Amino acid sequence: MKYLRFYYFSFLYFYKDKPESWNAEYRSMFIVSYTVISLISFVLLVFYPNFKGVYTYARFSIVAIFIILCAVIQRALISNDKYRLIFEEFKSHPINTKSNRIACWIIWSTSFIAPMVLAILQKIYVK
Q1: Is residue 112 over pLDDT 70?
Q2: Dihedral sign computed on CA atoms, order 38, 44, 50, 51
């Protein structure tokens, strides 16, 4: 859980100096939720190329899981102001280095791109 909290913190840290309309806690929540959903989609694409064999409600379930995950994170962290505790915990923590925060962005970008690349490759090679 420590690394997941740091993952959330790294995006909070990035958005902390942005204008108020950016809402760092919500943007961070969205990025963490999207990462989880992208990884789930990647695993599903590995086992079910082009989502063939996955029931139609499973596709809907991915969206539902995303919404539920966002609601849980919002309820657990944002509405209780626990995101501030996470920020304070990692602000001066030894794990809070620029290279670790860059690694979090690399994880996010990889999780964003990997399902799309896999889907394209499967569309080309798996028929």
Answers
A1: yes
A2: negative
Contact 14, 102 (CB under 8 A): no
Tell me the CA end-to-end span of the chain in Å, nearest whole number.
40
As a whole number, mean pLDDT of residues 15-21 equals: 80
* Res. 48: pLDDT tops 80: no
Q: Which domain covers residue 29, as residue numbers?
A: 2-125
Q: What is the tally of structural domains in the chain? A: 1
SS (H, E, C) 75-126: HHHHCCCHHHHHHHHHHCCCCCCHHHHHHHHHHHHHHHHHHHHHHHHHHHHC
Name the region of 80 (left: φ>0; alpha: ψ -120 to 50; beta: rest): alpha
DSSP 54: S
Q: What does the pLDDT look like over 56-94, one tens digit per residue? A: 777 788 889 999 999 998 998 888 888 888 889 898 999
